[in-house]
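Q: What residues go here?
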């Protein structure tokens, strides 16, 4: 139930402007992305990920990878080039349907919908690599984030690599998130999503942060070993951390 609003928001974004919802460049809003242009932006971050994986000596195997919060498969397609199979998971049925359409000619990609705060559709130790970027920050609270982190460790194979990014702090001036709050209030009052997004230029995307110490504690209590944490401060004062962990 605590993800019901999250799922509704992302289904609406998938109808309104799915590519911008995934890669929110200001000049690409309102249909500015072309499909192949968007998909091409997945190559560089996956190339960086695999270089870092090589440095860390993980994962030991290249059987299966998980792209959590896959959207339309922007990163899934590139990740699948390094593994026998890459599974993309998303909360939105419409995003997954578009991912399947865009990647129909990439047999190494598989896409599934998951609208719960666990990954019970996967068995323990299913994946050599689990990756998520620009996703956990949009979840409704640290409790849900913690639940997924524990699940990531559960479905990671021994010797595998868990690599994920999320904000470790949000600058005070960015915490109020007025666009999201107003969108949600007007949506509850019955305003149609298209009017809110296109006419009022509002959107429902939230930003959540979790301190590095808390993330480390969740991973450790779940049986993961943190290999490295990379933290950087953005231009707006937010702090983002990328974590690498193994079992």
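A:
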């Amino acid at each position: 139930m605590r993800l019901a609003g999250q799922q509704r928001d992302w289904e609406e974004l998938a109808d309104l402007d799915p590519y911008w919802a995934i890669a929110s460049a200001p000049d690409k809003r309102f249909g500015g992305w072309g499909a192949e242009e968007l998909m091409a932006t997945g190559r560089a971050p996956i190339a960086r990920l695999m270089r870092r994986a090589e440095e860390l000596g993980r994962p030991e195997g290249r059987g299966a990878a998980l792209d959590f919060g896959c959207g339309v498969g922007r990163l899934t397609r590139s990740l699948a080039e390094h593994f026998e199979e890459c599974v993309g998971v998303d909360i939105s049925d419409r995003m997954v349907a578009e991912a399947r359409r865009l990647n129909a000619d990439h047999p190494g990609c598989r896409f599934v919908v998951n609208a719960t705060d666990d990954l019970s559709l996967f068995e323990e130790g299913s994946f050599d690599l689990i990756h998520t970027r620009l996703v956990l920050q949009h979840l409704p609270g640290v409790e849900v984030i913690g639940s997924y982190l524990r699940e990531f460790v559960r479905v990671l194979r021994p010797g595998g690599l868990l690599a994920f990014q999320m904000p470790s702090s949000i600058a005070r001036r960015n915490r109020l998130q007025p666009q999201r709050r107003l969108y949600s209030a007007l949506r509850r009052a019955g305003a149609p999503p298209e009017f809110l997004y296109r006419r009022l230029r509002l959107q429902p995307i939230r930003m959540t942060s979790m301190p590095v110490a808390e993330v480390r504690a969740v991973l450790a209590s779940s049986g993961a070993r943190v290999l490295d944490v990379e933290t950087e401060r953005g231009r707006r004062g937010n702090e983002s951390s990328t974590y690498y962990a193994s079992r």
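A: Context that may help when evaluating the design: The beta strands are 64-68, 85-90, 109-113, 127-132, 156-169, 225-233, 239-246. Residues 4-246 form a domain with the Rossmann fold fold (CATH 3.40.50.150).
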